[in-house]
Design goal:
With about 110 residues, this protein is of the alpha+beta class. It has a single domain, classed as SH3 type barrels, CATH 2.30.30. Helix content is about 20%, strand content about 35%. It has a six-stranded antiparallel beta sheet with strand order 1-6-2-3-4-5, with no helix packed on it. A hairpin with a 2-residue loop joins strand 2 and strand 3.
Amino acid sequence: MNYHGTGNEKEVLASDLNRTHVGHTVSFEPDEFTLVFGKIAAIARKESSVTIALRGVEGSGGLQSSYSIPGSQHVYLQPDMLTNTESTIKDIFGKVQENLRGGHKGDDRTDRL
């Protein structure tokens, strides 16, 4: 297949997955004929591979609930909406603080008597 994720997915090596990625939506190719999309339920590392267990797959039409892939393989993660929202709020708050402190010192637009 040769899947490379979509524009908003973050490319990560399977070996870089850790507990913070549990619950994220992931996509990857476990073999050349299969493309998997799902939520990560668990991640297990072995010496040369990573096993990704998917949430909610048990008993759904013969789909596998876990896949073992090489640690060097790329997987694609959907952006974490909570983290994105948090960083956006922090950016906006920082700009508001800067404006309140007079961060635009080159533009002296105060009214003078």
